[in-house]
Amino acid sequence: xxxxxxxxxxxxxxxxxxxxxxxxxxxxMVGLVKPTVVSDTNRRLFDGKAVERIKLVKKxxxxxxxxxxxxELFLEGK
Length: 78
Prior knowledge:
Elements: H1 2-5, H2 10-17, H3 21-29, E1 37-38, E2 44-45, H4 48-62, H5 67-76
Antiparallel strand pairs: 1-2
Helix pairs in contact: 2-3, 2-4
C-alpha cells in the first residue's frame, strides 16, 4: 500500500490519526509512539503504520485506559 511508505510530518500524522499535535508530542514523550524516521534536521516523520498505532492509543485511551496502563501493555507486547 502506497500510504504506508509515505512519510509525513508530526502535524500531518496527528491530523491523519485524529489527535492534536500536542497529544502526539505527549505520546512520543511518554514512549507510546516513536517516529518512523528522525531526519538529519531532527524532523520527526511518521508512516502509515505509526499513524495506525497513534489511532490505537487514542482508541484505547478513549475507552478508559490511562496512558500509563497503555504504555505498560505495549511494553509487555514487545
